[in-house]
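[Automated response] Your request has been received and processed.

Submitted sequence:
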Amino acid sequence: MLKIGWFSTARGDSSKKLLDTVVSTIRNGGLDARIEFVFCSREAGESEKTDIFLSQVKQYSIPLVTSSVKKFAGSVRQQVGVKEEELPGWRLEYDRQVIARLDDFKVDICLLAGYMLIVGREMCSKFNMINLHPALPTGPKGTWQEVIWQLISERATESGVMIHLVTPELDRGPVISFCRYPIRGGSFDALWNSLGERSVEEVRKSEGADNALFNMIRQSGFIRETPLIIHTLSSFSQGKISIDSRKKLLDSHGQPISGYELTAEIDREISL
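Generated structure:
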């Protein structure tokens, strides 16, 4: 049985939906796993969305650990795009306190499920942490919004979703699994044509996230995220892939591997 640690900031509805789906899959026998704990970097009372998430964790009788990064720092610090070695001292100390509070739990994998903090080197060393990133392994870094705007700027023809091992290098740890999807052809073409000669800056200023192409790209990636997570966790639980002490990915024979492409499997699942 795969023992999972769950990290989330729980800022939006998707955090709860993902937890619901994984718990349901486990209970229905679709995944041989158990969630040993949920850690949240917010506490009760900081956000309505987070409170709903925390309440759901308790209803599932999953051990819950919370520690407010906002209270710890005195204010919320934006970390996106900051290199690990540039993390301020308070952030590294926050990680150390989180590690101490989770010391009694024994887990195989920690899933970052909407965890909005960069993970420092000590945390990466302590746990085998995996993270979902809304792009292909060679695609843009950053938040899903930043990824989509860069895709539009580059006039890209495809995108994807990947799960990678967390390292201090932002969004660039060893790839575990990924799938790809086209963002050209069919209904996409008319939306690309509607951009005309406008630059991304002009589109962002006039329409922002309401732009139809932006939303279609987002939806195409979003519907693949949960299936990819489930398939990947299942591969770990079945012993098809593992992570050794050197943070190397291995197959069932103990041989080093690169990421699995699961495009066919994910496309088949979302078409059901």
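Summary generated for your ticket: Residues 134-158+178-272 form one domain. The chain has two domains: 1-127, 134-158+178-272.
If you did not submit this request, please reply to this message.
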